């Protein structure tokens, strides 16, 4: 199928392109790449930046939130999303298991 892309209207702003790597293996590679970028960006922060609110002021939910708080929130959300994706897989495996 190749790459699947959709255009979505996000919060009343112009549509943006969403990327799908096409296969489960491609998705894993893509997510690993994003993980590396995330760690690199966090590692490049100065000592003062984690406590700053400068980078979060434009987020719709980030007013007054420090960068550390926002990064923690993102990590929790991603963990929750992975659990939500994995649950149907576990349920499907349990349904098809011999009794």
UniProtKB/TrEMBL annotation:
**A Pfam match:** DinB_2
**Ranges of residues in domain DinB-like:** 20-85
Know the name of this protein?
DinB-like domain-containing protein
List the taxonomic lineage: Bacteria, Bacillati, Actinomycetota, Actinomycetes, Kitasatosporales
């Amino acid at each position: 199928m190749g790459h699947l892309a959709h255009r979505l209207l996000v919060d009343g702003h112009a549509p943006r392109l969403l990327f799908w790597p096409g296969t489960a293996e491609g998705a894993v590679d893509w997510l690993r790449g994003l993980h590396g970028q995330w760690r690199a960006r966090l590692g490049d922060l100065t000592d003062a930046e984690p406590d700053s609110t400068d980078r979060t002021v434009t987020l719709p939910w980030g007013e007054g939130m420090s960068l550390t708080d926002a990064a923690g929130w993102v990590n929790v959300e991603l963990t929750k999303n992975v659990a939500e994706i994995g649950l149907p897989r576990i349920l499907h495996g349990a349904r098809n298991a011999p009794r």
